[in-house]
Amino acid sequence: MAVSFSLADCEVIGFDLDHTLCRYNLVETARLIYESFAQYIVKERGYDKDLLDVSPESWDFCFKGLVLDMEEGNFLKLAADGTVLSKLIPVHVDQLPLQSQREKIGQSGNLGLLQRKHCNTSLGLFQVGHLLHNRASHGTKQMTSEEILEKYGRKEWKHFNTMSGMVSRSAKYYAYDNYFDLPGALVCARIVDSVSKHSPRQKYDFWKDMVAAIQHNYKTSAFKDNCGMYFPEVKRNPEKYIQCCPESVKKWLRRLKDSGKILLLITSSHSDYCRLLCEHTLGNDFADLFDIVITNALKPGFFSQPPSQRPFRTLEHDEEQESLPVLDKPGWYSQGNSIQLYELLKKMTGKLEPKVVYFGDSMHSDIFSAHHYNNWETVLILEELQEDGVMVPTEVESEPLEKKGKYERHQPKPLPSVSKQWGSFFVDTISGKGHTDASLVNTWSCKCVSAYSTITIPSIEAIADLPLDYRFTRFSSNSSITAGYYPKPPKSLLSSGEPVTTKCV
């Protein structure tokens, strides 16, 4: 495999829309999504009204990379090997000044997380505290190491093998990998808190109610019918939730088009919502930028399902019409599949194997699926890259200014890459068998980044000022796990300037 990647080598450039070309004001959007779900859950399904109130501190729970164990009501952060992350830090509590004890307890984020036991040593009888940094919760309540060991042990989580294959639907778990999902994680966690408070149980069955809330707010007709809270509010105040596209990105798209590239827009948003987003971000002439627009694509099925199950449909006034036996010309379509799309791309490029790159923000719906089922190059948009703190490699520092892309820091997000409760998106520490030695490991989310994306960037704006023939260092099995991050790898993946020894494979 080549060690570099360039857009100049690709005949076709494809884009997701939400959180890729269209970026949201995450603070406001997260609140709106949460309220949309909570209102339905409370009013239509009879859950506790306390769900409607959210404290500012609650947003720390929202974190990409969490997995919901539906039956148990537990949220898990997994290491790259599929084990649930947990760590014990020994602290001789009684030998610390009172203020230090308070500080140590405060760092854990929860008084209940400082466990004590009496130990008889050569220093006499004193209390040893274990400061817990466990990455599993029951609802929003952090689980103890003992609870994690009892429930999950020190072995691969039982659903990890299935989840690693990115199976799209499961009645057992749900993986949270994009910003639209995260407020729903907080809703689910608080449902578990509420249900457990009133009637502790062994198994939970709230997921069907959560699915109903999602369908109520996001079903295909919701935009037109002003159903739910989400679409009516965004239609009233688009500027409150949607960021304007930087001029550098608009110029970059035009440069791609003028250079002869075929541009695709493939989004799971329905056509009416897609039109609103694109007009607000790219302008009323946005359709001129794209050769093919595919809405309601139902990813990841778009990339994995055959034409018989996912035919393309024409649109009339944003309403889906009859299915098409073949896709024979550029245009605006709904649903569909990558197999027939690729046949059209062959025809448009005159090549037997046109090279395609796809930009997206969801590991499950965009990156894994485009890579695994179609062997497309993939560019992951990962805003956590700009939040984690970045280290400048020598080769990036030494590049001439005209070769460097724009990389600007944006306002802090309510859904950060480093959480008090969950730690870093990229790495974490685990205890040794004796609960004394801690070692640094990559998270499962970090492993997926290097395994399935060609390169990973914080935003399209970060590369918009680069020459189109710029050559990026790509992720590969033969390179460092930090190789494909642009413009800079996250600091948490580096130790003393060197990559973390645990490799993502």
UniProtKB/TrEMBL annotation:
<keyword id="KW-0479">Metal-binding</keyword>
<dbReference type="InterPro" id="IPR008380">
    <property type="entry name" value="HAD-SF_hydro_IG_5-nucl"/>
</dbReference>
<dbReference type="GO" id="GO:0008253">
    <property type="term" value="F:5'-nucleotidase activity"/>
</dbReference>
<dbReference type="GO" id="GO:0046872">
    <property type="term" value="F:metal ion binding"/>
</dbReference>
<keyword id="KW-0378">Hydrolase</keyword>
<dbReference type="Pfam" id="PF05761">
    <property type="entry name" value="5_nucleotid"/>
</dbReference>
<dbReference type="InterPro" id="IPR036412">
    <property type="entry name" value="HAD-like_sf"/>
</dbReference>
<keyword id="KW-0007">Acetylation</keyword>
<keyword id="KW-0460">Magnesium</keyword>
<dbReference type="InterPro" id="IPR023214">
    <property type="entry name" value="HAD_sf"/>
</dbReference>
<protein>
    <recommendedName>
        <fullName>5'-nucleotidase domain-containing protein 1</fullName>
    </recommendedName>
</protein>
<comment type="similarity">
    <text>Belongs to the 5'(3')-deoxyribonucleotidase family.</text>
</comment>
